[in-house]
Amino acid sequence: QPQHSNDPIVAAGLTITALQSLVSRQLDPFNNVALSLTKIEGGSAFNVIPDNVTIGGTLRSADKILRDEMLAKIKNIAENACAIHNCTLDLEVRPGYPSTINDKKSAQLATAIFEKTYGKNSINKVEKPTMTSEDFSYMLEEKPGAYIWLGAGENSEKLHSPFYDFNDELLPIGANY
Q1: Is the pTM value of this prediction over 0.85?
Q2: What is the spatial distance between Cα 71 and Cα 66, in angstroms, rounded to a whole number?
């Protein structure tokens, strides 16, 4: 009698749908926020309503206040979706690394060194902020510095692709830099 059960699959679906419109419909489009839902797990049989569902993902923003506001909105959406379907919410937030924010002078110095070593055409300057988040960010919070990307080549898969394969020929370039 599925009509007498609380269905976390439906609550999860409502949560996911609402979260997917959160960035596009409730935030200033000029704010850098990335919300990616990357995991959903629930149930193992086609004819049994599971007792729980797990949704996972990442939230990135260069603005800590905005990130905290987004976390509150995420919690509100999930709580309401669960309430509608008589489910309970167990929200776990695992803070990741802080935003990676380069010191301007350090970035200019890094660019000058690379251009001197490998030529002006070897640099692709990233003009817009990116959503990079690395453990190196902890160092940048303490001391001025610059985080650089070493490109893998035009025919390479993107870094977060399951098909990515590091180009070992880049090791001498990175080490020399």
Answers
A1: no
A2: 9
